[in-house]
Design brief:
Length: about 270
């Protein structure tokens, strides 16, 4: 796959949470959380449903204001940063998105360029190149003139990812990016994210449900449960049967993935003869 513009080393950012407490009204999701996203790495957050993974991701890009503590980007509280400045540093693919009725694919992807536009210079060749490249990278070029609301779930997901890529941010946050996709497209997109990280130095932070995919693609794994970080580190040194049991309540056997040589989790179910 061809990839978008490289991120200059001087623009790379460091994202961290300090004494972070997140809540919805009176329901506390996590409390006094300390988290540093490794710069230039592919970080994956895993954990059971409802444990707070997506809530944490929302707080990292200012969609959810902390009840206490702060999220900092290069040492600055993101709550105090101008919206466009933050949007040039952080791109988010949310878990679910709603496109305006009747909007074309190309027009939706082009919305990713908003943070880069100025008052008297609304569109540029660089904007057009970024949009075309993002659509090519996600395989939606042939859908450019179609309306988003007539696409399949998997096609829509790839269009939303194209919009995030068109934003060309040094940090990309992905909340369950492989939702609605068949396994071939899941791997295709994970390979794209890996290339963005390895070749273009984007810092990637993704919430994934598939623990085996997380182990294969992540440099840094964060195991999250009950609003707490249970463990974090490289998958090869972190993931074992005890951790899988602690986080997911699942009995398993861990073997080496024959392709990536990363941990491969084999669930233990009822024995069948």
């Amino acid at each position: 796959m061809s990839l978008s513009t490289e991120i200059e080393p001087s623009t790379l950012c460091r994202l961290k949470a300090e004494h972070l407490t997140l809540a919805y009204e009176n329901r506390v999701i996590c409390e006094d959380l300390e988290l540093t996203i490794p710069q230039g790495k592919f970080t994956v957050i895993v954990g059971p449903n409802g444990c707070g993974k997506s809530t944490l991701l929302r707080s990292l890009c200012r969609l959810l204001k902390p009840a206490q503590g702060q999220v900092c980007l290069d040492g600055r509280n993101i709550q105090q940063m101008p919206a466009k400045e933050l949007a040039r540093a952080l791109g988010l693919l949310p878990q679910s998105s709603q496109a305006p009725e009747g909007i074309r694919v190309m027009d939706l992807v082009a919305r990713g360029r908003y943070p880069h536009q100025q008052l008297f210079k609304q569109w540029s060749p660089a904007d057009q190149d970024a949009v075309f490249q993002a659509m090519a990278d996600t395989g939606v070029t042939e859908l450019a003139e179609r309306q988003v609301d007539e696409l399949s779930g998997g096609q829509k997901q790839r269009v939303w990812i194209a919009m995030v890529l068109a934003q060309q941010t040094p940090i990309v946050l992905l909340d369950e990016p492989t939702t609605y996709l068949d396994v071939a497209h899941q791997i295709d997109l994970l390979e794209l994210f890996l290339s963005l990280n390895r070749d273009k130095q984007h810092t990637i932070v993704a919430v994934l449900h598939d623990l085996n995919q997380a182990c294969r693609y992540a440099d840094h794994l964060i195991a999250f449960a009950d609003g707490k970080i249970v463990a974090q580190g490289e998958p090869n040194t972190l993931v074992d049967a005890a951790l899988v049991k602690q986080v997911f309540g699942l009995d398993s056997v861990i073997i080496a993935d024959p392709v990536s040589h990363t941990p491969l989790i084999v669930p233990l179910g009822k024995q069948r003869t």
